Amino acid sequence: MRPLVLERKPQRRDTPKAGGLGGQILELLRYRGLLERFRAACTDPVLAPRFPFGGVHLDLTQLADPPMHALPLPQQLLERLLDERADELGIDIRRGHEVIDVSQDDAAVIVEVRGPDGPYQVTPRYLVGCDGARSRVRDWAGIPFPGTAYPEVNRLAQVTLPDEVTVLGNGDLSGPGFGTIRAGFTPRARRAPAGRRGEPAVAVHLQGPPGRTLPPRADPAGR
User: Fold this and answer.
1) Which of 30, 76, 90, 174 is the most exposed place for a label (fewest CB within 10 A)?
2) Cβ(171)–Cβ(180) under 8 Å?
3) pLDDT digits (tens, 9 = 90+) for 171-222
4) DSSP for residue 3
């Protein structure tokens, strides 16, 4: 079976998005023999094992052998590594090719594609919709996606850290007047100088120097 990847965007984006990998995906990479390759590409401090689970903040730092770990690998770098691996395997990746309709018969899936040179059709045996939470492929297949809206609001910011802020070895930040700001996520604000104490915090990913993605806590005012 030879995979074909259809990607609507004409090229990889440089916009900072996800800041790393965690949980069972790391074990899957280990199973595929790729984990050490991905680890070698990381230049950021390895974050302490603290994770959000719904509205609960899981701090696994007290466990001798935490069942979950994080790998601080910015999405831009992750996509490049995956591209390199796909190229090694000879996978056909067509960028700038958008899936516009899907149907099926008894023998195959019929995929209508709009590419740079006009529309065309492919008929694979299987179609995998890797197009996110608002998947059009899932909708075309008639697969429901019931659920409720998540109550938290997350912000993504790209900022420059001042020289007096120190990035510690575990990814935490240390700054005068704030002490240590732990990397990770929290459902409640520890400090709220511009608002009422206890207001919901905003989980913010802060990007420092090129190639570094740091997710510290933030108060509702975005300080």
Assistant:
1) 90
2) no
3) 778 888 878 877 665 444 333 222 223 333 333 444 344 444 334 444 434 4
4) -
Which residue do the tokens 């998005």 mark?
17
- Nearest-angstrom CA–CA distance, 207 and 160: 7
Q: Where are the alpha helices (DSSP H) in the chain?
A: 24-31, 35-40, 75-88, 136-141
Cα separation of 11 and 89, whole Å?
A: 20
How far is it, in rounded angstroms, from Cα 203 to Cα 189? 10
The encoded tokens of residue 188 equal: 């409640």
Place of tokens 């730092």: 61
Give the integer Cα–Cα distance in Å for 17 and 76. 8
CA-to-CA distance for 121 and 100, rounded, in angstroms? Answer: 10
**Cα–Cα distance between 67 and 206 in angstroms, integer?**
26
Q: Is residue 48 a contact partner of residue 184, using CB atoms and an 8 Å limit?
A: yes
Give dist(CA 37, CA 26) in Å, integer: 12
Per-block mean pLDDT, blocks of 10 residues, the chain (223 long): 91 80 88 92 78 75 84 87 93 95 92 96 94 88 82 72 81 81 54 30 39 40 40
Only one residue has tokens 């400090």, namely 191
β pairing state of 203-207 and 154-158: parallel
Number of H helices, E strands in the chain: 4, 15
